[in-house]
Design goal:
Blueprint: E1 4-9, H1 16-27, E2 32-38, E3 43-48, H2 55-64, E4 70-71, H3 75-108, H4 116-131, H5 133-144, H6 150-170, H7 173-177, H8 186-210, H9 212-218, E5 224-229, E6 232-237, E7 246-249, E8 258-264, E9 266-269, H10 271-274, E10 280-282, E11 287-288, E12 293-294, E13 299-305, H11 311-324, H12 328-358, H13 360-373, H14 377-396, E14 399-401, H15 404-410, E15 415-419, H16 420-424, E16 430-436, H17 440-451, H18 457-468, E17 476-482, E18 486-491, E19 494-499, H19 501-506, H20 515-523, E20 527-533, E21 536-544, H21 551-560, E22 564-568, H22 573-583, E23 587-589, H23 596-606, E24 611-615, H24 621-626, E25 629-633, H25 638-643, E26 646-648, H26 654-688, H27 693-696, H28 702-723
Parallel strand pairs: 15-22, 15-24, 22-23, 24-25, 25-26
Antiparallel strand pairs: 1-3, 1-4, 2-3, 5-6, 5-7, 7-13, 8-11, 8-13, 9-10, 9-12, 14-26, 16-21, 17-18, 18-19, 19-20, 20-21
Helix pairs in contact: 1-12, 3-4, 3-8, 4-6, 4-8, 5-6, 6-8, 6-13, 8-28, 9-14, 11-14, 12-13, 13-26, 13-28, 14-26, 14-28, 15-26, 17-18, 21-26, 26-28
Length: 728
């Protein structure tokens, strides 16, 4: 039985160390092939062998680790769950603030009145044991599994401050016995909890914004569609629609599934799938994509893809794969997160003992400040939020990146190789010139009649030209294909040879009268077809595959990024040279046969370069797989797309530049996030420990530490959201 993949939601993770702990437990379980946790979207992506372990057992591993899990819920339920989580955090913060404010005001303004400490105690109880309960229960669960997390730091920090204050209130004599003045820190405990609740509320809101693009993608498909049946129109659930069913789409409606129009015409907004801003005209026999929006007319279409085979499902699948993967830099973060909390507790205890020897009254302040300021939320959010926003931005622009490894590799590209035909060019050759010593239409008549049975792209161009000129095509006999050279056939009992110059030479046909013109046409980038009738050279037909409109500008932009651009082509050197000059490409490799493309990529890699390969055909697949980053045009073959790391849905060349730019922007944001998260802790922990107090009298108040910690997480998420507004 094949491995199975599932996504489970885990809602009670509090930080990166939680995610690391769950991931470690899952990956150490027999039968689980791979488990990856995305802390930002609270999801576990698990690949397992169903013959060894059941889904219920997978869930039990998570439960035994101290967390709860549930199956991936419907998109409507998911939105409600996220909104409920935000509202819950908002309620906790608001109610906590009501009790915290009087504690803070009384303490800070040093207002004195009878039984002051008892009043502060009563006001603090709801904050500690009701609104802050989640931190203590989370810490207890972690303790049961012999681990520590963010909840541990908060619970220990605020708990110590509260217990110290409680003893000072109930039994102040205990401190007098050891020569210390009893003090209370109720404002420290309550303000810290309130500020962290504020941070969690803002974080929940910000994470919802960060994942907006991904959610919008998942909500594109409607739930129902109008299916044409023998009884007339019938509203049917999407899951009940079958291939070959006929669906009616009216103006303004979303197209439910992929298919082919069989009646009617319209303009369709495909921007949400391809990134193309202008609506596209569609008519009978045109292919349409599920999730796009019908703008003007009504039409009927025949369903060709359902379920996971639809374009939208495949896009969502690639985006989810992206979210479940980890950039290599994230692995270092995971290792650090795994040891972070224990290390911080160790530093806090060491600081406590040091201050007890020098200034006992400051020991509690420094101990609590270290525990609170060092919560690893920002570390856990730094990478996944950047990748999530980047994945969404890419999907909105018709760019799909397979995984985070590909994203990071694309940021380092130094050389990019383009297959010419169908990538730099339209892939649809057209006849540009005809030179003949007989009537041109007569030459075209013989050439098109000969080529009609050939499947070569150049043959299609010749036949199409004859059709445009309204030239009738004759029946032929004795058709013989000569691979790599051309063909021979009898048209109207005349032997016609059509193909390369070598074909003419092999058959001792003199083409000297056309030699000069052949060189001129080849120099201009044309492929030349020679035509002979009854062993006499009668003319030449120039065929050119036009460059894509955005090819030259794309090459220019890539070069401006410091990337070397190389063109691969099967054309002769003269043709390749002409095309490369038009594009502004200095380095080109002509007469490359398909199996040699891999060797070219390997050679560039041997030069020490990070290489990208751009292609669209079956013969590009090996080179796409060999390259550090394979970029496939979405208009190409399925095998090329499967072999690639990045897929350009629309097939426009400019998106190659956009994809690399997206990678660079995302990785830059990711690195900024990690810098903020690390530098924050590097500076904050010594400051909280009182490193500046002996020389400058500067000490970090635990409440300021809580505020800083809360907003460090929000700042990381906000920095990631900033990426969504970038233009590629």
């Amino acid at each position: 039985m094949d491995d199975k993949k599932i996504e489970l939601k885990i809602y009670n993770m509090s930080c990166a160390s939680c995610a690391a702990k769950i991931e470690k437990a899952l990956n150490e379980t027999q039968g689980i092939k791979e488990a990856k946790i995305n802390f930002a979207i609270k999801s576990a992506f698990i690949t397992f062998d169903p013959e060894v372990i059941a889904v219920s057992q997978v869930k039990k591993v998570i439960i035994d680790t101290g967390y709860t899990s549930e199956d991936l819920i419907k998109k409507e339920d998911s939105k409600l769950k996220e909104e409920k989580e935000y509202q819950e955090q908002k309620k906790n913060f608001t109610l906590s603030l009501i009790f915290t404010l009087p504690v803070f005001i009384i303490s800070m303004l040093m207002i004195e009145f009878p039984y002051k400490d008892w009043v502060l105690l009563v006001l603090s109880l709801p904050v500690i044991f009701v609104f802050g309960k989640q931190f203590y229960t989370g810490a207890f669960k972690a303790l049961k599994t012999k681990s520590a997390n963010m909840n541990t730091l908060i619970a220990v920090g605020t708990g110590v401050a509260f217990i110290y204050s409680l003893v000072s209130t109930i039994y102040p004599q205990a401190f007098e016995l050891i020569g210390q003045k009893p003090e209370v820190y109720y404002e420290t405990a309550t303000v810290i909890i309130s500020l962290i609740l504020l941070g969690r509320m803002l974080e929940a809101k910000a994470k919802g914004r960060a994942s907006r693009a991904v959610k919008e993608l998942m909500e594109l498909q409607p739930d129902k569609a109008l299916v044409i049946t023998d009884e007339g129109e019938k509203e049917v659930l999407i899951d009940d629609i079958k291939i070959e069913d006929v669906v009616l789409v009216k103006p303004g409606e979303k197209i439910p599934l992929d298919g082919e129009i069989i009646e009617g015409a319209s303009t369709i907004d495909e921007s949400m799938i391809t990134g193309e801003s202008m609506p596209v005209e569609k008519k009978v026999q045109n292919y349409i994509i599920g999730g796009t929006i019908n703008k003007t007319g009504s039409f009927k279409f025949k369903v060709t893809k359902i379920g996971e085979d639809t374009t939208l499902s495949q896009i969502i699948g690639m985006v989810k794969n992206m979210l479940s993967s980890k950039a290599p830099v994230q692995r270092l973060v995971d290792i650090i997160s795994g040891y972070f909390v224990v290390t911080v507790i160790g530093i806090a205890l060491l600081t406590l003992f040091i201050w007890l020897n020098f200034n006992p009254s400051l020991a509690i302040i420094t101990f609590v400040a270290i525990l609170i300021i060092a919560c690893p939320c920002a570390l856990g959010l730094a990478t996944p939020t950047a990748i999530m926003v980047g994945a969404g931005l890419g999907a909105k622009n018709g760019i799909l990146i397979k995984n985070a490894e590909s994203l990071e590799a694309a940021d380092k590209i130094q050389a990019i190789t383009f297959d010419k035909t169908g990538t730099l060019t339209m892939g649809q050759p057209v006849v540009t010139d005809i030179y003949s010593d007989i009537d041109k239409n007569q030459l075209l008549y013989f050439a098109a009649s000969a080529e009609k049975l050939s499947e070569h792209p150049l043959a299609f161009a010749v036949v199409k030209k004859a059709q445009e000129e309204n030239i009738n095509i004759a029946q032929t006999r004795d058709f013989k294909a000569l691979p790599g050279h051309g063909l021979s056939v009898f048209v109207d009992d005349k032997e016609v040879l059509i193909g390369s110059e070598k074909l003419m030479e092999y058959n001792n046909i003199d083409i000297s009268s056309f030699t000069q013109k052949i060189l001129e046409l080849q120099t201009e980038g044309n492929t030349v077809i020679c035509v002979s009738i009854d062993k006499q050279a009668r003319g030449i037909i120039a065929v050119s595959d036009p460059l894509k409109p955005d090819a030259k500008e794309t090459v220019k932009k890539l070069k401006s990024m410091g990337i070397e651009v190389i063109m691969l082509t099967g054309d002769k050197k003269a043709v390749a040279s002409s095309i490369s000059k038009k594009l502004g490409i200095e380095r080109f490799i002509p007469e490359v046969i398909p199996q040699e493309k891999v060797d070219v990529v390997k050679k560039l890699q041997d030069e020490g370069k990070i290489v990208a390969m751009v292609g669209d055909g079956i013969n590009d697949a090996p080179a796409l797989a060999q390259a550090n980053v394979g970029i496939a045009m979405g208009t190409g073959t399925d095998i090329a797309i499967e072999s690639s790391d990045i897929t350009i849905i629309k097939g426009d060349l400019s998106s190659t530049f956009k994809a690399i730019n997206l990678s660079r922007q995302t990785m830059r944001t990711l690195k900024q996030n990690l810098f903020f998260a690390f530098i924050y802790n590097v500076i904050a922990i010594p400051l909280a420990a009182g490193a500046l107090y002996p020389g400058f009298g500067v000490l970090l108040n635990p409440m300021i530490a809580a505020l800083t910690m809360a907003f460090s997480s929000v700042s990381v998420v906000t920095n990631s959201i900033r990426l969504s507004g970038k233009k590629l």
